[in-house]
Write a structure and sequence with these properties.
By secondary structure, the chain is α/β, with parallel strands linked by helices. About 40% of the residues lie in helices and about 20% in strands.
Length: about 350
């Protein structure tokens, strides 16, 4: 059965169904409905909702709950995520699973509350300090947002790596019918023998990202990066649409991926052979599939709500095999399908 939900509400409900039992937050627009939904519904499932005194406090509460082995989540929007970055680095260093939802808004600074995609670098390249990665998933519909939140909890537990959902203000506020995933039974949540659950009848566990011996710490980081390489092998996700005979392929994620699908349909009606390549995992980024596409498609046009952050990864993937023009908007301005189609025509008929 489908229910009508905002993107923020769907992500909250999906988290509860995924077994999230601790949620810590500090309110910020445009993800306020996620906070409100968790406040109303999580306690009914035996979970803990706590509005912290700051974003810094919230992310450190996530650290504590994750260390105790509880499925835990926080959410915020761009400037709030910036404030959480030190704690996210600590989560990564301590190998603690947790889910972070970023409903992006325009920046830098306070910016405004309109949708944007200017946090790509922060999410995929490591916005905090040190050598670490986050699993980053980017939904383009409310249905997919719910599904990817469920997946984020599973992947984060499997690899002991924090996972981020990179949404934006448009997706968070959008209402669509959603078929919600079935709740995960508690017995299906994997055991966490490393967690701090009390050392009765066992040796104490230690959860830390700290080691004063550089050689020991080097080995810790090498083991961590071995896990990242495993994620790169196993967890790359993307979607291709109408790329089989395409002369130009749009490369876009999230909300822009959704809009670009409409552009493809309209271009096809005009006889233009246009397709779409939509990264779903922003890290690990689908370098190899995009590189293969570039071997047979002459133009890959990246479209973003930013100055061209994902565009850097597109060019790294393509390695000169195809032309890689860019079209982007800033400040929370969302281009229409007509505006993007006009840009497409410059490269198809130029």
């Amino acid at each position: 059965m489908k229910v009508l939900l905002r993107g923020n509400e769907a992500m909250a409900e999906a988290a509860i169904r995924a077994g999230c039992r601790c949620y810590f937050c500090y309110p910020i627009t445009p993800q306020g409905e996620l906070v409100e939904y968790m406040a109303r519904h999580l306690p009914r499932h035996g979970g803990v909702f706590l509005q912290a005194e700051s974003e810094v406090a919230a992310i450190n509460m996530v650290y504590g709950a994750a260390a105790a082995g509880v499925r835990t989540m926080t959410s915020s929007s761009s400037p709030g995520i910036s404030l959480k970055m030190e704690g996210i680095s600590y989560l990564a260093g301590a190998r603690l699973p947790a889910v972070i939802v970023n409903v992006m808004r325009a920046g830098p600074g306070l910016g405004n509350i309109a949708p944007a995609q200017g946090d790509y670098f922060q999410a995929t390249k490591g916005g905090g300090h040190g050598d670490y990665r986050l699993i980053v998933l980017a939904p383009s519909t409310v249905q997919e947002a719910a599904e990817l939140v469920m997946l984020a909890f599973d992947l984060s537990d499997r690899y002991r790596v924090p996972a981020m959902i990179l949404a934006d203000g448009m997706l968070g506020q959008m209402m669509e019918p959603v078929e919600l995933p079935e709740p995960i039974p508690p017995e299906r949540i994997p055991p966490k023998p490393w967690a701090l659950t009390g050392a009765k009848d066992r040796a104490p566990n230690v959860v830390s990202s700290f080691d004063l011996d550089p050689y020991r710490f080097r080995e810790i980081l090498r083991a961590l990066w071995a896990v990242y390489r495993e994620i790169e092998r196993n967890e790359v996700r993307w979607e291709e649409y109408a790329t089989e005979d395409a002369e130009l392929v749009l490369v876009a994620y999230g909300t822009m991926g959704r809009i670009c699908r409409t552009v493809v349909r309209r271009a096809r009606k005009e006889g233009l052979r246009v397709g779409l390549f939509r990264p779903i995992s922003l890290w690990p980024f689908p370098y190899a599939p995009l590189r293969r596409l570039a071997e047979r498609v002459p133009v890959l046009l990246t479209v973003e709500l930013s100055a061209g952050q994902m565009w850097e990864d597109v060019r790294l993937a393509v390695e000169g095999r195809a032309k890689t023009p860019f079209y982007g908007e800033l400040g929370g301005v969302v281009p229409t399908p007509e505006e993007i189609l006009s840009e497409v025509k410059k490269h198809v008929r130029g």
